[in-house]
Write a structure and sequence with these properties.
Shape: globular
Largest sheet: 2 strands, antiparallel
Number of strands: 2
Low-confidence stretches: none
Number of helices: 3
Structural class: mainly alpha
Length: 94
Amino acid sequence: MPKIKLKNLYLGIKGQFPLKRAFRNFFITGNAWGMFHISSHIRQDNGKEKVMYNTYESAEKAALSMEKKYGKHFSVYKCIFCDGYHLGKNRDNK
């Protein structure tokens, strides 16, 4: 099981800012708490690691492509378990 990397924890939380957005993501919608769950790094359907993107920009480009392909919103987030970024869908699809 991968361990949380302190540097990536800092970058993951920093990625939730500005403060108003961070407050909403942690305390109103609760979506940001998912970054601490192993499922933010491991796929639930097959147990393999999610696709890792080296930069936010490359992940954002992939997210837009996936949105066009599947008609759903995909979010980009900094993984606290690895040095990359992943794509995800929250339960509200926003």
